[in-house]
Amino acid sequence: MCVTAEALQTPVHDDVKALRVHEDYLPTFNRLTVHLVDTRGQGITEINAGGPAGLTASSTSWIC
């Protein structure tokens, strides 16, 4: 399975109904203008709205 697909999967437990998402949600991640940022469970630590715009997560910065 693709690494991106694995990262987007949510854990499913036997006693929980399947998560429902809009039909356009997952195909969005296949667009050339979309990049999946793996925060390794730590979340985003900084959003830079000034130039250049970007974000920082897990001590790595991305320019948007």
Could you give the topology of this structure?
Elements: H1 3-8, H2 25-28, E1 44-48, E2 54-57, E3 60-63
Antiparallel strand pairs: 1-2, 2-3
Describe the structure.
There is one protein chain. The protein is α+β, with helices and mostly antiparallel strands and 64 residues long. The chain has one domain (3-63). It is built from two helices and three strands; from the N terminus they run ααβββ. It has a three-stranded antiparallel sheet, with no helix packed on it. The longest helix is centred in the N-terminal third of the chain and has 6 residues, at 3-8. It is extended and about 45 Å long. The two termini are 27 Å apart.
List keywords for this structure.
three-stranded antiparallel sheet, 64 residues, 16% helix
As a percent range, the share of helical residues equals 10-25%
Number of helices: 2
Major sheet strand order: 1-2-3
Query: What class, by secondary structure content?
Result: alpha+beta
Question: Which overall shape is indicated by the principal axes computed on the Cα atoms?
Answer: extended
